[in-house]
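<amino_acid_chain>
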Amino acid sequence: MRKYDAIYQDLKDKIEAEIYATGSLLPSESALQDMYQASRDTVRKALRLLKDDGFIQSQKGKGSTVINRQEYVFPVSGVVSYAELAAQFHLQTRTVVLTNHFATLPAKSFKDVDPTVEVKQMRLLKRVRYLENEPDIIDIDYLDPKVVPPIPESVAKDSLYAYLEGPVGLTIAYATKEITVETATEEDQRYLKIPPSAVVVVVRSCSSLTDTTKFQYTESRHRADRFKFHDFARRIRP
């Protein structure tokens, strides 16, 4: 591990453990140099990583202030599963599997996230996600059978990505996403327990492996009154 990566990780761990609390200043650059026996350039690289990842805000002449990253816990830009988020924040969840069989991919629905998508047979996994005993999301996953083997019922009720990256041995790399607000369908009303006048937040995505193979198309239909999306954005000046 590079020295500045090690410094970044140690400072990140201390921020998350609240050794450096929100609103407090990190030690000065010179103090960090002494603490880690590192050059000024190495320390600055570590601080830049912390800044880019939303842990600190640097001000010239004032140092680096720890900021409240807890506000950004449901990132729209990350590739993270619902089960992983639930585990991270110790939420009470359960999953009801509605469908687990072959179906035709509705390519038209995913044209904006993958212009090259084609109609084809995929593994369809449809699930309702409950948070604190309330239905939150209908997850509709279309999985390429050339890449993804049959999904056991126990996996469908738990973490799909843990299965794919564990026993199956895939390496999931990135996803293209689109977020829209749409009128609730009859299925949304039935499974999410919402009125006909309600809207849902729909996140459509195309996920790829490290070799760029597109293996998953997902449509997540969220109750608008129960789910918030947060992300951390930093202005990049031209």
